[in-house]
Amino acid sequence: MTKLSSRIDAKRDDLIDLTQALIRVPTLNPPGTHYRDICELLECRLSARGFACELIRAHGAPGDSDTYPRWNLVARRDGTRPGDCVHFNSHHDVVEVGQGWTRDPFGGELDEGRIYGRGACDMKGGLAASVIAVEAFLEQHSDFAGAIEISATADEESGGYGGVAYLAQQGYFAPERVQHVIIPEPLDKDRICLGHRGGWWAEIETKGEIAHGSMPFLGDCAVRHMGAVLQAFEDRLFPAMAARHTDMPVVPEGARQSTMNINAIHGGQPENPPDFDGLPAHCVPDSCRIVIDRRFLVEETADGVRDEVIALLDDLKARRANFDYELRELNRVIPSMTDRDAPVVTTVAQAIRDELGVDPTYVASPGSYDQKHIDRIGKLKNCIAYGPGVLELAHKPDEWVGVDDMLGSARVMGRSLETLLLP
Ligand SMILES: [Zn+2]
């Protein structure tokens, strides 16, 4: 065990305290509460350790308002000579609590080596582990090259537009400023996440004509038209997607192909409000809408994904009487994939071998995370997700993170800093 590793292990209590303190700030998103509080907590700690801290509000980002301002923290400490900058980026927001908890979701309870709470694994445990790793590194090595940055950013759980996307637009992830990015999302301490699939979201509406329900032939049923759309998806789109495999090491394996979810369907009159129990009126629906969530691979493009759906709909339009539709794209996210021989990947991989005595597993995420903004806006390809915690616990009741896992990953992060900043 290296001197730095022992130093990190000796910070066990500090790591527990910090993780608990972070969990106890309920940074719920939506709507985005206590963002400034958690940034100030970290600012207070890191400025005492020589970091230059900036509190940055994402003015004008989706969701930003005076009631719910989107605050971010970027802390930087420069070394004694020029070199690369290593940036640890964690999102500080957490998702809603939900039902089924047996622990206080904002209590940060420690029980048998696990710390419980909303955000414990996703990803306040990873944030705390990176802070401890960096602080131990600075104590061990007063003389280092380059710079270390730690950021705590808003809104990852709702797309990251008030967080990393905003910072990237302001130049915080420009390649001349930052060379290596590690995002301590909960991927297990022996796995390196190289990237994620892309996403394309759209609403499709079929049109009809309203008429009396007893004489449907006098109108045109938009729900039946949508039925034809869904049938075309079943017959043609789903089999085509299932046949498309990827070189991305996506886990779980079911996501190692293109997928599509139909998030919602609605046709005809609105459902009754809870305080109204009357009977529905008899009408032929003149509109039916679905929302689709199409996840795609590095081997595909967002335009190709969109054109495939449009071609199917246009084909229906040509073949089916009175069929008409509207398609509204809601959002798109590019897939991101860092090369296995990128410096941050080989460095962390070696640190996992040295520190944990196992070969790393390379994975990619089925859903996206903030890497997309660092890649697309920041133009920085040398980025991975690496951090403690079990991905399957994210967003679940009684979410927890293991203290030993946090320490293990902190040792890997510390050793990676030694490789990158002590040339
Ligand atoms: Zn997360």
UniProtKB/TrEMBL annotation:
UniProt-recorded Gene Ontology molecular function terms: metal ion binding; succinyl-diaminopimelate desuccinylase activity
EC category name: hydrolase
InterPro entries: ArgE/DapE, ArgE/DapE_CS, Bact_exopeptidase_dim_dom, Peptidase_M20, Peptidase_M20_dimer, Peptidase_M20A
Pfam family, any one: Peptidase_M20
PROSITE patterns reported in the protein's UniProt record: ARGE_DAPE_CPG2_2
Catalytic activity: N-succinyl-(2S,6S)-2,6-diaminopimelate + H2O = (2S,6S)-2,6-diaminopimelate + succinate
Assigned EC number: 3.5.1.18
Keywords: Cobalt, Hydrolase, Metal-binding, Zinc
Keyword Metal-binding included in the entry's annotation: yes
A GO biological-process term: lysine biosynthetic process via diaminopimelate
CC cofactor: Zn(2+); Co(2+)
Domain Peptidase M20 dimerisation: 195-318
Superkingdom of the source species: Bacteria
Listed pathway(s): Amino-acid biosynthesis; L-lysine biosynthesis via DAP pathway; LL-2,6-diaminopimelate from (S)-tetrahydrodipicolinate (succinylase route): step 3/3
Similarity comment text for this entry: Belongs to the peptidase M20A family.
Name recorded for this polypeptide: Probable succinyl-diaminopimelate desuccinylase
Organism: Salipiger pallidus
